[in-house]
Specification:
24 strands, 23 helices, about 40% helix, alpha+beta, Rossmann fold, Isoleucyl-tRNA Synthetase, Domain 1, Methionyl-trna Synthetase, domain 2, five-stranded antiparallel sheet
């Protein structure tokens, strides 16, 4: 475990492709978690920067440009600025949101390539690749489609089949077609530079294992899986006309592979940021100082690029002559990520985000209509930290109405309204003692002492009662103890990247505050015991201030409203830890009460769901464009032996995010089938399900695992990226081995 104490923290969020609008899945994956963490560290007074930007190179950009009939630069310009505006509108407070089309980034990427080239970490290989003689260019993987060599899917891409998850060389495709001209490509020989990843195998193994106690399990397991299979050479150049030139002789018509150059964008953007701040060499503190901690926020589809490939390039640069001074006396070594808290995927209303099926919510569309904080809160409450999560408008409504409005908003409104109505809008005294300030200081010191020592609550209260019961009730002390302990309790969650727990603990403070208000009954004590009522309202206002600090990482716009409600601006003395203290002074004027949150109606839920393409999981016949395959005879059908089977065991296939290995019982037979249903079902969900399988299919090998049949599943037509729907047997009668006709 890493016990090093760091002076500063460098935070990066994955660079989104500038080929489309960023949606809620992107926000939950890498940007909201990074922003929350950055805001928390800043509240603690720590030095931190948050770096991100657009990835504007590579095939995704050129494909979008072709589809829209514009240049790649026009595509990059359009989506870069739109996405930055959307991110900032929802409160993502980047220090810089840069661009990989900047010339400075081209310089940085070429510098790294040359350093690794001269250090001997590249090898050249000639290979055959599809070439479009009509378009007069080689075809990158996404520019060619054909029939999958494993499952027969006729919409397979040049490097991977989305139906069965098989990976292969593009030249293995059957009936390949160029997506540019629609013609059959021909094979031609081309040359590429391959990074010798295998030479970093042992160092990367040691690096990964050094973080086994801190990193999320799925990050470790995905990284270990690649290492277990052995790292081979990986091509880092492409035959493209858009991107960064390869800076060596013989590669004049090639570009750097986008996943080689993109991570260096973090470095480039830090350089630009420091130049803008008037310290052009300041970037070295962030990237080449061992006192800096680097945390990389990404989605799970980018894990190995940030845990293995990017670290390998940094290691290689550190080995190179470029890292040393002219006399060889010192070296400028890049630091490696100290943590890569990758999130899993966020789904929408039970389905994957799908642009082609109009199943998604773009960030820019959301902020054009609604306040950002309810979205931030709902996503944070259900972040896909360790497994896929689901955003639904019903949950959004419940979080906004039942928690933000009815708990936090209700407490603040009740408190400020009561003080405005009965205390002239001024903070009432904490106590009536002539030594109020002394009582305040002693109380704060005692609470701070016990909070730091994490003592049980009853022990603390037993110690506090003799000293303070003449000033406070049991409820007072309990509420004051709650805000005293909350900062350290919530901080522990943030330090371990447990945002959902942090949100729960923060809202629990507001829950405790509502309970305190109710239990103290200020509407009664206002008449029966005015001094007691004043103490209650003073403590409630102190809690409003504490909540402004504690909620700021999660819902910063609301936090600003809480400061405004207190007629205050957040100052240098309002650090994270000051949330445990009593800062408000008697007679301080507060602002007129306002409603913090408007409730979300059932009609709004229905309207938003209706926008999502079809609101039903199964589309009607009119909504599905069906193109039937060629007719077959009854004899062809009768050749298939369809049988009822029960799933006995299920597990994921290594190195595949779509395949599951299933053990089946078919009457007296046991069979193993590999099926591409992992994106729609967890292995444990399938145990005991009765399905229909093709039992007489010739065995095939998928991802190194033998499959002795095929199950029946439903797929949307047209190569949809929606996961297949397993066809299960609803009828209770019958048993394994029964024929299906």
């Amino acid at each position: 475990m890493n016990d090093q104490i760091f002076k500063r923290t460098l935070i990066t969020s994955a660079l989104p492709y500038a080929n489309g609008y960023s949606h809620l899945g992107h926000l939950a994956g890498a940007y909201l978690p990074a922003d929350i963490y950055t805001r928390f560290l800043r509240a603690c007074g720590e030095e931190v920067i948050h770096i991100s930007g657009s990835d504007e190179n590579g095939v995704p950009i050129t494909i979008s440009a072709d589809q829209e009939g514009v240049t790649p630069q026009e595509i990059a310009d359009k989506y870069h600025f739109e996405n930055e505006r959307a991110f900032r509108a929802v409160g993502i407070d980047f220090d810089i949101f840069g661009r990989t089309s900047w010339e400075k980034h081209h310089e940085t990427a070429r510098e790294f390539f040359l350093a690794l080239w001269e250090a001997g970490y590249f090898t050249e290989k000639e290979e055959q690749q599809f070439y479009d003689p009509v378009a007069k260019q080689f075809l990158p993987d996404r520019y060619v489609e054909g029939i999958c060599p494993n499952c027969g899917n006729d919409k397979a891409r040049g490097d991977q089949c989305d139906n069965c998850s098989a990976t292969y060389n593009q030249i293995e495709l059957k009936n390949p077609v160029s997506k540019i001209s629609g013609t059959t490509p021909e094979l031609r020989t081309t040359k590429h530079a391959y990074l010798k990843l295998g030479e970093f195998q042992k160092r990367l193994e040691a690096y990964i294992e050094s973080h086994r106690d801190e990193w999320r399990d799925h990050v470790l397991q995905q990284s270990r899986s690649w290492l277990k299979s052995g790292l081979g050479d990986r091509a880092m150049t492409r035959d493209l006309d858009w991107g960064i030139d390869v800076p060596v002789e013989g590669y004049e018509n090639k570009k750097l592979y986008v996943w080689f150059d993109a991570p260096f964008g973090y470095i480039t953007n830090t350089k630009v940021l420091c130049e803008e701040r008037g310290e052009p060499e300041g970037w070295r503190r962030w990237w080449q100082d061992s006192d800096t901690r680097y945390v990389a926020f990404i989605g799970k589809d980018n894990i190995v690029f940030h845990t293995l490939i990017f670290p390998a390039t940094l290691m290689g640069y550190n080995d190179s002559a470029a890292a040393r001074t002219a006399d060889g006396s010192s070296a400028s070594h890049y630091i490696l990520p100290d943590n890569v808290p990758a999130c899993e995927f966020l789904n929408l209303e039970g389905r994957k985000f799908s642009k082609s099926n109009n199943w998604g919510i773009d960030i820019r569309d959301y902020v054009a209509e609604y306040e950002p904080d309810p979205l931030r809160y709902t996503l944070a409450a259900n972040l896909p930290e360790n497994k896929d999560a689901d955003f639904t408008w019903k949950e959004y409504q419940a979080r906004l109405n039942n928690e933000l409005a009815d708990i936090l908003g209700n407490f603040v409104n009740r408190t400020t309204t009561f003080v405005t109505r009965y205390y002239g809008g001024e903070v009432p005294p904490l106590t009536t003692s002539e030594k109020e300030e002394l009582v305040r200081q002693l109380l704060s010191q005692d609470l701070e002492h016990f909070a730091e020592n994490n003592a049980p609550r009853e022990i603390i209260l037993n110690d506090l009662r003799p000293k303070f019961m003449k000033y406070f009730t049991e409820s007072d002390l309990t509420m004051l103890l709650e805000i005293a302990q909350a900062p350290s309790r919530i901080a522990a969650c943030y330090r371990s990247f447990r945002y959902r727990d942090a949100l729960l603990e923060t809202m629990n403070v507001a829950r405790a505050a509502n309970k305190y208000f109710n239990d103290s009954e200020p509407w009664r004590t206002r008449k029966d015991d005015p001094e007691r009522c004043g103490t209650t309202l003073n403590i409630c206002l102190q809690v409003v201030r504490s909540l402004a600090i504690l909620f700021e990482p999660l819902i910063p716009f609301t936090a600003s409203k809480l400061w405004s409600a207190l007629n205050l601006e957040k100052g240098e003395g309002d650090s994270w830890w000051s949330a445990a203290e009593l800062h408000l002074k008697a007679k301080h004027p507060i602002s007129e009460p306002t409603i913090l949150f408007e409730k979300f109606t059932d009609e709004q839920v229905e309207r938003e769901v209706a926008k999502l393409g079809t609101s039903s999981e199964v589309a009607t016949e009119e909504e599905v464009e069906v193109e039937l395959k060629p007719e077959v005879s009854i004899e062809d059908v009768m050749k298939l032996d369809l049988r009822v089977a029960t799933i006995l065991e299920a597990e994921k296939v290594k190195k595949s995010n779509k395949l599951l290995k299933l053990q089946l019982q078919i009457g007296n037979l046991r069979r193993q089938i590999v099926a591409g249903v992992a994106k729609g079902y967890k292995p444990e969900e399938l145990i005991g399900k009765r399905i229909v399988v093709v039992a007489n299919l010739k065995p095939a090998t998928l991802m190194g695992v033998e499959s002795q049949g095929m199950l029946l599943a439903a797929n949307a037509p047209g190569g949809s990226d929606e996961p297949p729907i397993l066809l299960t047997l609803m009828e209770e009668r019958g048993q394994d081995g029964f024929e299906v006709r």
